Amino acid sequence: MELHFRAENAHAITEGNQNILVAAKSMSMFVMDPVSQAVLDYVQAHPHATQEELTASLAEHFPIDEITETIQEFITLEILQTQERSATPAPPVPVLDVEHFPVSSLVVNVANKCNLHCTYCYEPEGAKYGPSPVQMDWETARDSVDFLFRKSGASKEVNLIFFGGEALLNFKLMRRTVAYAEEKAQAEDKVVDFSLTTNGTLLTDEVIDFFQAHRFGVTISIDGPKDLHDKRRVFLTNRGEQKGSYDLLRPRLERLLERYTVRPVVARVTVTKDAIDIVRTYEHLTQLGFFEVGFSPVTAQAETDYGLEPADLRELLRQFRELGAVYVERALNQQYTGFSNLSTLLTDIHLGTNKLFPCGAGLGLLDVDGNGDVYLCHRFPGTEEQKYGNVKDGIQYDRLNTFINSAHLGNKPVCQTCWIRGLCGGGCYHEAMTEFGDTTLPNLHYCDFLREWTEYGIGVYMQLQEQTPGFVEQYVLRGRGDAPKELT
Known about the structure:
Elements: E1 2-5, E2 10-15, E3 18-23, E4 28-31, H1 34-45, E5 48-50, H2 51-58, H3 64-76, E6 80-82, H4 83-87, E7 105-109, H5 125-129, H6 138-151, E8 157-163, H7 171-187, E9 191-198, H8 205-213, E10 217-221, H9 226-232, E11 234-236, E12 242-244, H10 246-259, E13 265-271, H11 278-288, E14 292-297, H12 310-331, H13 340-351, E15 365-368, E16 373-375, E17 387-390, E18 394-395, H14 397-406, H15 421-424, H16 429-436, H17 447-467, H18 471-479
Parallel strand pairs: 7-8, 7-15, 8-9, 9-10, 10-13, 13-14
Antiparallel strand pairs: 1-5, 1-6, 2-3, 3-4, 11-12, 15-16, 16-17, 17-18
Helix pairs in contact: 6-7, 12-17, 13-17
């Protein structure tokens, strides 16, 4: 029987004295025994061989039945393909009908305006600071809630996510919307979960107590200690001068982290050029009281003064590993470290995540702007290409179906040769638009970074499983269970 080695479906990693095989088609992992290692070595050197040749070459060292069993396992994992399977046409990429896919999360942009002028913000200047920045009104907010419950189908939990601009600029509307959503949930026997992302500069005791009463998931956009945060998260004075926001933010944060107790509070850090200081930023923010810190490379082309070039990504990876070493050291002492990038990766590895899309945008999640227009996600308001109707008039499902099905991982040929495709899903649509001008393209500028980060994460996972069994299940999965549903 002729065999063909599918290199794109096999990736080997050495961790300590273990050789780990990642079967990329199913995103499953195996610790290789000597037989499977020998089979892999042979087919890598002889990608086209017969089973008889393979068996004969190893028969002197291993029992034939073990060799045969391993070959069959590799065929099942599609690491090896038989001649018969090779001749069979690949099945077509399945077509999704998005109209019948339940929407369980809705982002509502209650305020387009923002009181900060962060230099790296991806939203258009005119939308936030023009003569008429949009503030969502009550009728639009009510229609948005009705839309969410109507489209949630049989889902028992729905998520309402407040966003901006700066959402707290329209706090009065948030209060009214939450009350209406809770009444709606009770009437329809559902649970509604609330969360928001805010720059934190408008926090007051009244706002914090409101979050406490309604169990909000709270994510604060903050870029680290004062010297890092104030580089690009700034106010613009009446004289047109930039003024850092850290000194105003910090006492409000301290009040939030002291007063708000019902759920963990998460920090979201945007990583920019000349501000890559991961360990110091993490330690500073957790000392303030944040439960977790997530780091997101800035959305920008490299030629901007804050965009990350390949050398910056290599430095970011080095520092991620440095914080990862702290994570492991503390884990061996049964202490959880809220480094959400690593916790998310460990969770995906543990659960066997295998994506066909990079995220739930357009499927389980949509965004509504202040006018009621519906977009793919919170990053696209104002982008005509990714506007799909209005909560009052309905959704253009023909266009949304066309986009989602074109974005399917199976329709991205370059991704089919990548061993982390099931964890990546091709990458963020908005990143692709910013970098390449096409939302359906994979995020090729991040590929090397993500592959190396994933390989590192697998090594950490195997080390934790071996040296502190149960840590991932007890601390990582459970530890993140009540954290806000972050928008990263």
